[in-house]
């Protein structure tokens, strides 16, 4: 974890950040969140906020959009609670609510909003400014609404976060 322009990442209680991850700048992680191997997160030209019990899996890139005349606030990266971000995703200046699963290799672009309780399929591309409504599976490139989530899938969103809190705790016990 590195300082950038006087700002260093801030971790909540019981967080895990793998030694191979690179996180710099204005970034905060909520309690019980985890950053896994080879994640790159840069809170340099804007900020990144990650909620509680959220896991960012191997090889994911987290970044932001700078402020400009056309976009005075830029696009920070905001990720809610109980979110599972699969391996090798790219989240860039977007907003994710709570209880979301982002499938492996998905890309979510500037200004996109993902409401609570959403599954995003592996390899999906969420274009700039698109909103994904709560309670649905989204797949494809560009991502489109596929179907409503089943109750078992809704339950799994929270369980996935719990699974990663347990795994994170196991890793922390080995330190």
UniProtKB/TrEMBL annotation:
Protein's name in the database: Gamma carbonic anhydrase family protein
InterPro entries for this protein: Hexapep (IPR001451), LbH_gamma_CA-like (IPR047324), Transf_Hexapept/Carb_Anhydrase (IPR050484), Trimer_LpxA-like_sf (IPR011004)
Signal peptide start and end residues: none
Native species: Lacimicrobium alkaliphilum
One matching Pfam family: Hexapep_2
């Amino acid at each position: 974890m590195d300082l950038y322009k006087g700002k260093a990442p801030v971790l909540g209680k019981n967080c895990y950040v793998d030694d191979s991850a690179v996180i710099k700048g204005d970034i905060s992680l909520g309690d019980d969140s985890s950053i896994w191997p080879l994640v790159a997160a840069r809170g340099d030209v804007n900020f990144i906020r990650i909620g509680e019990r959220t896991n960012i899996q191997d090889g994911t890139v987290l970044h932001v959009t700078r402020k400009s005349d056309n976009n005075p606030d830029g696009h920070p990266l905001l990720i809610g609670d109980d979110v599972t971000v699969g391996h090798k995703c790219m989240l860039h200046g977007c907003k994710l609510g709570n209880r979301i699963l982002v499938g492996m290799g998905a890309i979510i672009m500037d200004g996109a909003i993902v409401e609570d309780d959403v599954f995003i399929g592996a390899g999906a591309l969420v274009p700039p400014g698109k909103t994904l409504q709560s309670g649905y599976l989204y797949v494809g490139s560009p991502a489109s609404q596929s179907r409503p989530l089943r109750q078992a899938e809704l339950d799994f969103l929270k369980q996935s976060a719990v699974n990663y809190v347990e795994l994170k705790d196991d890793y922390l016990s080995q330190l």
